[in-house]
Each structure stands twice: as structure tokens, then as C-alpha cells.
Design goal:
Tetracycline Repressor, domain 2, globular, mainly alpha, 2 domains, single chain, two-stranded antiparallel sheet, Arc Repressor Mutant, subunit A, 9 helices
């Protein structure tokens, strides 16, 4: 009898890869190990992914799509933050892979739809276009990610976990409130450089002449933006 394709195989492969990476980093993420953890064969994995980097890229894009799908259903910035944290904690292995090397190619030149969505939410609360709020969005992103990783890696449970989540939400709301009241936040460094561009796929740059190196990284397929 002919063999029927396994509709769950890709999910099993990516799930196995995320768990292996979370446990041992890149050194543990071999095609053979992924195949064994996914309950399939190495040739079958190679039929779907060229190499380890191809698997990691698929993991990043899948995780970004799922995170964005949850965030776009929220109505307020506070809801978005709580949804972001809930997703990170419920999908910790995928989340950790997503942010490994996020500011370097090829991840830097892939779309960041959730970052852009939350920056748009900020612009709805404050004056000016989304690009005006890059620095505030970076601060909020740092708070969210720091909270998520502290809970994940620190093993926060019970009241400590709850307090960490709400401390993050309350701090972000306070930052936004101060900005809406035209109270400038402390600015210890230089202004945001014009060539520091985040979340805009192939237009992204960290301001170090890195655009010239784009051709060396694989071009990622565009994700649908809001």
C-alpha cells in the first residue's frame, strides 16, 4: 500500500529542533538528532530542510507568525503585552530560538511583525508616526523580553511569576503615561541614528554599515504585516 504523508511531521520536526536547541544550543542541533527526536529518519528531515540553518529559519518564521496572530487580536497595549508574555511562557523553547541572535543576519533582515504592530499601537496612543517611537518601543521590548526570560530561565512560579508579569505591564503603562503628558524620559545617549532601522525586513540596519552585508544572508519570504 502507498505511504500517506504525515501532516504532523513538520510540526514534530520543528518542535524537536526547538527542544534540542533550548537544551544544548547549536551543538545539539544536528539533522540526525532532530530526526531521532521527531521520530523520523535523517533523509526525511533533509527532504524538507537543507541544513540546520534552514530549520532555525523555519522556526523563527513560524514563531513570528504565531506570536503576531495572537497580538493582532488584542485591542490595547496592555492586552498586547500580556499576550506577548503568555505566548513566550507557553512556547518557551520556540521563543528562545526566536531571540537567539535576533539582531544579527539573517534574523535582522527578516520581518518583525509583532514589533511593528506594537510600535503602531504606541503611535495610536502618542503623537507622530510609528518611527518616532523607536526608542520607546525598544525600551518596552527590552522590558517584555527581560521579564519573559527571567521567568523562563529563573523558574519563576506562583505569586513571583504573577508579580513579574504585572510589574512589566505597569511599568510600560507608566512610561507611556509620562510620554503622553509630554514629560521627556531620560536620554543618556545620542539620538536615535537614522540608519538604525528595526523590524523592516530587508530595510533593517543596526547602523554599522551592515546593509552591504545583506547579500550574504538568505532573503526571507515576507510576512503579512498589519
Amino acid at each position: 500500500m502507498p505511504r500517506h504523508p504525515d501532516p504532523e511531521l513538520e510540526q514534530r520536526i520543528l518542535g524537536a529542533a526547538s527542544r534540542l536547541w533550548a537544551r544544548g544550543g547549536e551543538k545539539s542541533l544536528t539533522m540526525r538528532a532532530v530526526a531521532k527526536a521527531a521520530g523520523t529518519t535523517t533523509p526525511t528531515v533533509y527532504e524538507r530542510y537543507r541544513d540546520r540553518e534552514d530549520i532555525l529559519r523555519a522556526l523563527r518564521l513560524k514563531t513570528r507568525r504565531e506570536l503576531f496572530a495572537g497580538l493582532k487580536r488584542t485591542k490595547t497595549l496592555s492586552d498586547a503585552i500580556q499576550t506577548y508574555l503568555r505566548f513566550a511562557l507557553e512556547n518557551s523553547h520556540f521563543y528562545e530560538v526566536l531571540f537567539d541572535g535576533v539582531g544579527r543576519p539573517p534574523s535582522l533582515y527578516e520581518p518583525w511583525p509583532s514589533f511593528n504592530l506594537m510600535r503602531e499601537r504606541l503611535s495610536e496612543l502618542l503623537d507622530g508616526p510609528p518611527s518616532r517611537h523607536n526608542r520607546l518601543m525598544l525600551a518596552i521590548w527590552s522590558l517584555m523580553h527581560g521579564t519573559a526570560m527571567l521567568i523562563i530561565r529563573g523558574g519563576f512560579e506562583g505569586p513571583l511569576r504573577t508579580q513579574a508579569i504585572h510589574a512589566c505591564v505597569d511599568t510600560v503603562e507608566h512610561l507611556v503615561h509620562l510620554t503622553r503628558q509630554n514629560k521627556a524620559l531620560p536620554h543618556s545617549g545620542p539620538k536615535w541614528p537614522g540608519n538604525l532601522i528595526l523590524g523592516e525586513a530587508e530595510q533593517s540596519s543596526i547602523g554599522n554599515g551592515d546593509k552591504a552585508r545583506k547579500s550574504k544572508s538568505r532573503k526571507a519570504p515576507a510576512l503579512k504585516k498589519r
